[in-house]
Amino acid sequence: MEIKPDEIASILRERIEGLDVDSADLSEVGTVLEIGDGIARIHGVDNCQSLEMLELPHDVVGLALNLEEDNVGAVLFGEWDKVSEDDTVKRTGKLLEIPVGEELLGRLVDPLGRPLDDKGDINTSETRSAEHKAPGVVHRQPVTEPMQTGLKAIDSMIPIGRGQRELIIGDRQTGKTAIAIDTIINNKDSDVVCIYVAIGQRMSTVVQVMETLEANDAMKNTIIVAAPADEAAPIKYMAPYAGCAMGEHFLYQGRHALCIYDDLSKHAAAYRQMSLLLRRPPGREAYPGDVFYLHSRLLERAVKLSDEQGAGSLTALPIIETQAGDISAYIPTNVISITDGQIFLETDLFYSGVRPAINVGTSVSRVGGNAQTKAMKKVASQLRLDLSQYRELEAFAQFGSELDPDTQRQLGRGERMVEALNQTERNPMPVAEQVASIYAGTEGYLDRIKTDRVREFLSDLIDRLHSDNKELLDRINETGQLSDEDEEALGKAIGQMVDDFGPDFDEQGNPLEEGESDWVTRREGDERPPVDSDQDGVGADASEAETQAEQEEAGTPA
Ligand SMILES: Nc1ncnc2c1ncn2[C@@H]1O[C@H](COP(=O)(O)OP(=O)(O)OP(=O)(O)O)[C@@H](O)[C@H]1O
Ligand SMILES: [Mg+2]
């Protein structure tokens, strides 16, 4: 076919003259140059902003991440595999918006707010920008209210405040998620709205979490945002920002929100994958150079707002998984430096029966002290130090050298404190019960009970307090204070309980008759040689040392 330039020119002129400026769609339009792995390169959207939403066919949403000279690199959400080269792309001029509101409570949703459970549509009326600039220092105030986890070991030694960022860090299977779930359950009847963001987990695990929360009636003020392992990297990348936006909805209404990001290691990996596909230069551990900013801009959004701003709060509990306890890897060090403290969980402690498996020496909360209830502060001030000392002595005592009575007493006290701080999962405790358990330990009441009976004793104690001293417990829970009279009453009640429970040791720490016979019966049940038989060849273990000590006390040297 012959091409006639004149004709073409006249057709073009006609078109341009006939253009109705008002009705024509003049939004900026581009075309897809290249597509693959959920990433598109788009030509022609020159004025596109960073993090702007783009419209593609088949309801696919793009998020502009790389603004290059002649093209824009965007990640795609939705059924991106239906998009092909040369498809048109429209600018929206808006940053990515996430649906927010009360309607999401009790629901399991994806990072774009679409339901993943079978409870029907979610009709939210509001949206919030997924990326939001963190409030500046003048809009903030110090963190002073406690965010109770319901876990004795945390509320007593590593207290978390509303508006704080506290990292939960540890190897796999050390109980990281359990701490987060217990915190949600503990706050089911409080004014805190919880948002649990699951990143890169199996969907079945997420559903299990939801079932657990439902069984504990804690789903009513909780939103679960899930970007499961089989999702594309951009969805996982978006999840924590979406969860944070949902929390901010409550924050800016002057309410309290708690966001849990489980976990940010997988988030960083998703971002690395995305960045490599976008051909950004890889840096240390192949993460892109701005991976610190990825987490800092998320966690800076945790805040306690000033009174003028409504005094709302958003607390962040990010979770990081370490490899073989290595906290000096790239992502762990980044997140440690962004947060206001960390709860460090250890595999060794977990398997030695310390649960939650918190390493007290390396765990810290940098702002939580101000936010602790007065009652807890009063009874637990020494606890941290005592436990750290106990751990040191314990390592020393393993060498089997002779220990002076003071050291022995300290070791005994430490052992009982560890036992008293142990807590099963899904069993968070109100403040008063925690205070009573810890008071029993720090004031030496537990020294009169054998370590393996401590747990039983404490559970009996709590039951007893509930039936006999209900007002005392209620007063501590309501006021958060432990007045001197209440302290005395508590001490008396615990002392009485020790007598009724049947102590194993007298007040000086000498074993009592019952305790001894109790021990001998246990020994027989053990199917080991009786005490008075020939002991040669049997390694000197802890219980033998005990016998020896007992005999010495009785004045009959072995
Ligand atoms: N306080 C506890 N008492 C008893 N068992 C616990 C406690 N905390 C956690 N567990 C158990 O330990 C296991 C691991 O817990 P959890 O899933 O919370 O760990 P995680 O660190 O989140 O693991 P992952 O790395 O797989 O995410 C679970 O089987 C859980 O039931
Ligand atoms: Mg987990």
Rg, alpha carbons: 30 Å
Average pLDDT, to the nearest integer? 89
Question: Describe the biggest sheet?
Answer: 9 strands, mixed
Q: Tell me how many strands there are.
A: 17
Q: Report the β-strand fraction as a percent range.
A: 15-25%
- Helix fraction, binned, reads 25-40%
Care to describe what's here?
The chain is of the alpha/beta class. Helix content is 39%, strand content 16%. The protein is built from 18 helices and 17 strands. The protein has helices spanning 5-17, 152-157, 176-186, 203-215, 233-251, 264-277, 291-299, 330-338, 347-351, 374-380, 383-397, 405-421, 431-442, 454-468, 470-479, 484-501, 513-525, 542-553, and strands at 29-36, 39-43, 52-55, 61-67, 72-77, 88-95, 97-100, 108-109, 126-129, 167-170, 192-199, 222-227, 256-262, 303-304, 313-321, 341-345, 364-365. The chain binds adenosine-5'-triphosphate and magnesium ion. Magnesium ion (MG) is lined by residues 176-177, 262. Adenosine-5'-triphosphate binds next to helix 3.
Write the layout of secondary structure elements.
Elements: H1 5-17, E1 29-36, E2 39-43, E3 52-55, E4 61-67, E5 72-77, E6 88-95, E7 97-100, E8 108-109, E9 126-129, H2 152-157, E10 167-170, H3 176-186, E11 192-199, H4 203-215, E12 222-227, H5 233-251, E13 256-262, H6 264-277, H7 291-299, E14 303-304, E15 313-321, H8 330-338, E16 341-345, H9 347-351, E17 364-365, H10 374-380, H11 383-397, H12 405-421, H13 431-442, H14 454-468, H15 470-479, H16 484-501, H17 513-525, H18 542-553
Parallel strand pairs: 8-12, 10-15, 10-16, 11-12, 11-13, 13-15
Antiparallel strand pairs: 1-2, 1-6, 2-5, 3-4, 3-6, 4-5, 7-9, 14-15, 16-17
The structure holds adenosine-5'-triphosphate (ATP) and magnesium ion (MG).
Magnesium ion (MG) is lined by residues 176-177, 262.
